[in-house]
Protein: 6-carboxy-5,6,7,8-tetrahydropterin synthase
Organism: Lacunisphaera limnophila
Amino acid sequence: MPKKSSPQKSREPSVRALAGTVFITRQVHFNSAHRLYNPTKSLAWNQKQYGMCTNPHWHGHNYVLEVTLKGQPDPVTGYIMDLARLKKVLHTAVVDKCDHRNLNDEVDFLRGIIPSTENLVIAFWHEIAPRIHLPARLHCVRLYETPRNFAEFFGPAHH
Amino acid sequence: MPKKSSPQKSREPSVRALAGTVFITRQVHFNSAHRLYNPTKSLAWNQKQYGMCTNPHWHGHNYVLEVTLKGQPDPVTGYIMDLARLKKVLHTAVVDKCDHRNLNDEVDFLRGIIPSTENLVIAFWHEIAPRIHLPARLHCVRLYETPRNFAEFFGPAHH
Amino acid sequence: MPKKSSPQKSREPSVRALAGTVFITRQVHFNSAHRLYNPTKSLAWNQKQYGMCTNPHWHGHNYVLEVTLKGQPDPVTGYIMDLARLKKVLHTAVVDKCDHRNLNDEVDFLRGIIPSTENLVIAFWHEIAPRIHLPARLHCVRLYETPRNFAEFFGPAHH
Amino acid sequence: MPKKSSPQKSREPSVRALAGTVFITRQVHFNSAHRLYNPTKSLAWNQKQYGMCTNPHWHGHNYVLEVTLKGQPDPVTGYIMDLARLKKVLHTAVVDKCDHRNLNDEVDFLRGIIPSTENLVIAFWHEIAPRIHLPARLHCVRLYETPRNFAEFFGPAHH
Amino acid sequence: MPKKSSPQKSREPSVRALAGTVFITRQVHFNSAHRLYNPTKSLAWNQKQYGMCTNPHWHGHNYVLEVTLKGQPDPVTGYIMDLARLKKVLHTAVVDKCDHRNLNDEVDFLRGIIPSTENLVIAFWHEIAPRIHLPARLHCVRLYETPRNFAEFFGPAHH
Amino acid sequence: MPKKSSPQKSREPSVRALAGTVFITRQVHFNSAHRLYNPTKSLAWNQKQYGMCTNPHWHGHNYVLEVTLKGQPDPVTGYIMDLARLKKVLHTAVVDKCDHRNLNDEVDFLRGIIPSTENLVIAFWHEIAPRIHLPARLHCVRLYETPRNFAEFFGPAHH
């Protein structure tokens, strides 16, 4: 039960803090080109493995990224983390590097990675995690390649 | 594997029950005004902490509330809980108190609480939980402040 | 941290593999008729239990099915499973049997089951699981009866 | 330009009216079973014409209905029509008759009509129009059979 | 038919222009508090007219604003208007004045107006129109108060 | 009013036809890479005009295409056009040529066109229109580049 405030005899303002572990999520988006191919394999192998997704002339997506943090609401602010600040963190860590860019060729932290949604959520996690400071913890990175398919990563310690 | 029905020699109707723990979720919505501020702090502190969210003249949201229960489908009904009844519970517990209202000033169970999404999901949990009866269990309260940001609470026992 | 590639002296192409457990989800949809009723009970009992959902003349839904797999991205492909192939699996296992069909009367694997969303996710799990092969694992079946209500099942071993 | 209020020497409250023709839209939803078939034709003809949509065991949809009215905002209320009242009109005219029902067999005003989305919007128009009173005018009935397909009707006078 | 390019003997780059009138739409959003009431009427009148929407302690919405322009794509740029620039125009004209604000009390261009969705689209039109320059023309202002209800205004000349 | 059927003395099945002009819309989607640039202009001009949208390494989008036809429901079928067939037409005319492709380099009917959303809707119209046969008429092509921006074209005769 939330902590009850005792009857206030004085007229001093007060704030009731609520206890518990809460998860907060912020959504951002970016539009990028990519292709799926393994450069150590033949064109035929890539064609068979990825079909149209290996088009050497690229295709693209409106990616939607949702990042979840875990923590306890600060008794003074009511926040785990200011989501406006989280939005800036996500822009710095991921969006500004990926938006209107080619994920295979132009994003340094993605060099050499096949940019499947599975690999992207892991790579994004490692860009975001160093920017999240206690008491908040990074809990989940979710990436929608399209509204009908997405990947989620809960960190390297999660199995 | 679902329990197989034995070949029916008689023509009596029968029902196959399926075993397992399932999570069901119902979504409701309400439109409210609020502001984020800590009355024990100065106006300048609140301005710096919350920016425009501390506007003393209020702003508002179309909140979307999703509540998840956990249980086993009743072998006779196929339900964990009738979601039409859950909708009524959510209206009684939260929506009727918050819809078209001011969350800071008009909602008794929110008195003295900074109405951040983090605090709201905890407070809502405590309003809803006493109204959920075994064998169903309250599992998660999720609240969207906007389509791009939401909080989730899995109960005071969850860390 | 993702595995760093050592400086490349040769000009051979290479691929950086990323480690971690990832969850991928694919969404499909189908439109079906159904009714909720227990044929071992009286009409009055069903009317009281299910209200309009027991209409003997049927009603229907645009069902949305989301299926989540769990695994590690293959270092050669970047995939846990090709989602185009998962889409075919879901069509074979569930959609082709249920789309534009009557869930009570026409779907063999649903015979004798009250087609509540709770029961459907369990039944769907058992149709899909045998078609998912290691190293990928079936993690969750989520079914939306409408955008405002859905059920999730994480398998018979999950409590 | 909106009518400017002259500087107020008295302290009497006042209201500024804005002029113009505005369109307001309200969305409601209902879940129904139906099938597409022409009973004056053979089963083979229906199969060829409608494919799976002619399933004699029915299928169904979560229909979404959007109704648009046209008018000038009342200078006293700011409303063309109270949308809460329009919601009730739509429930009386359409939703209460169609929700959780079989559109082919149970809806009197649809008797003998092939319930394609095209025919439904016309039939719904004729149920709704008599309930809309001047100065508001019924402008459009839009019906989504699924999120990916819908029909619109602007009245019998519109070509 | 699009203008066919004549066979190019030279290797000079060229651009094919396409002719036609096109409508482009940009969506922005803002979160505000408001109440519906006519200050020239009694409290009882307002209660009867607006019900809960007249709550003197305010309620609020996540408003979604869609603005449509009409024009011919510029043969040199392919644009009617750069939508990034349109987004800035909409922020200057409407969003920056309304976001996180109280529509009744804090927005100068809304002074004295009952902030129904009908009145808001007219008022927004008059703020936006002077900022749209030929050859583009303002065609429609659409405002969603919630996902289930919205108003549209096509300008003072449209009946 | 819908045509009333005269009381049926015989037991022959009959069908009531409804009169009126109806608009039907089908939605399809495709994922593509593109860039906005005018090859007759300098790199600096393109940078200034298009900003990040001119990235020579491409970016991309999940495009959503909605096509509307206009007609009278056929009294025998209830259809203006079978939307399953319309979906095939749209796949042949547009989707199969654009999906997982580079709109600037790989789509013959887009050669030499700056692939802004404005130009794309005109080009798509001209691919689709010859495939729509009376009595149905092509009425509108709507293309979402992202959920927050889209273009519409009502044909070369519309001003």
Summary: The beta strands of chain C are 22-34, 59-71, 137-146, 149-153.
